[in-house]
């Protein structure tokens, strides 16, 4: 009897299919999503340090990791349906029977007795048609969708952070220039008032200069507001409350040049939304296959092994051991059309997934074309603003030289300096806009190093 007991247990357990899963350390994988090698191109250690802080502290990124773990457990739960189940449910009861049982002429008198039942029940649904396997594969594709959503969050969050970071540097520089403009305008107003008092100009010139000064002060207030808002935004990303946001000086900021003006069509395939739609098609494809197999019969191996006795002192004797083993076939003869409706539902969802897939491709092409156009326009604008800035610098230097030899008045030099600073503001804006356009192109390309935009091995 013991041999039969051991054989039955082994028979039920050999139905367990092998399942090997390769685990990748989450930190290693998500750090790859951060793509620090790309951000090295900006030559800004503060930016990289901040991005690492975002990586460790940001709650949105932490939630994406939890979402991955949740879906991994869902996959594991579904995979459990492919495995045998083994359970134990003991029973102790006392039968109190009236004299109502009769076998022919023999009647069983009134009696009472205990019944001790200690069974181990095991079962395994033989997945002949691959129904449970398709369901597990569907859940694995759902996990892939969530992983790509996590990757998209990393790309979007780091890109948005970097854009705010460079905009903060821009706000610093514009505020510095604005303060210089205000000081110059105050001197111009003072000189204009002196001219008015000596009768060399009318009151309208004084009022005009006063209006310019108020406009410059108002613009400075806007720059200060922008700076403060950007600091608060960056602190939110970094999950920090202190007022210090370490950043590079504007003069050390390096825009990216020579990015490709065309791209390989393969770049679309690297975008997270493309990979999500690709996984979604596979997921629903498995759902359709599983829905078709719901019409087929199921076969379940059922077995019980254990002890059954009416007296406690006989519970562990050989006569109390028992073994049941069999195959249970089952098929739904009528389900009210539920299975047919479910199959059609999955087919409709599959068609929708195909349409979303095609739409995603078009959206990716549109985003990349727009990103490239914005980058090329920003680069051209920066080139022109740099030329204008250099020309205005020469004009300002000539004005200073003329003033030194007495060929022009001090107020003329101030006007030239003011024009020079206004041109510098344009140059600052164009330079930062060029950087932000390169970040935007990085974002729409799916977080690929833009210098490898046409690399077929990305």
What's the mean pLDDT score?
87
Main sheet makeup: 5 strands, antiparallel
Label the CATH architecture of the domain at 21-86 and 129-189 and 227-297 and 337-452: Up-down Bundle
The helix tally amounts to 10
Helix content: 55-70%
Span between termini: 63 Å
CATH class of the domain at 21-86 and 129-189 and 227-297 and 337-452: Mainly Alpha
**Assembly form of the protein:** single chain
Number of E-state strands: 7
Radius of gyration: 38 Å
Structural class: alpha+beta
Low-pLDDT residue spans: 1-26
* Structural shape: elongated
CATH topology label of the domain at 21-86 and 129-189 and 227-297 and 337-452? Outer membrane efflux proteins (OEP)
The topology string of helices and strands comes to HHHHHEEEEEHHHEEHH
Strand content bin? 5-15%
What's the CATH superfamily of the domain at 21-86 and 129-189 and 227-297 and 337-452, by name?
Outer membrane efflux proteins (OEP)
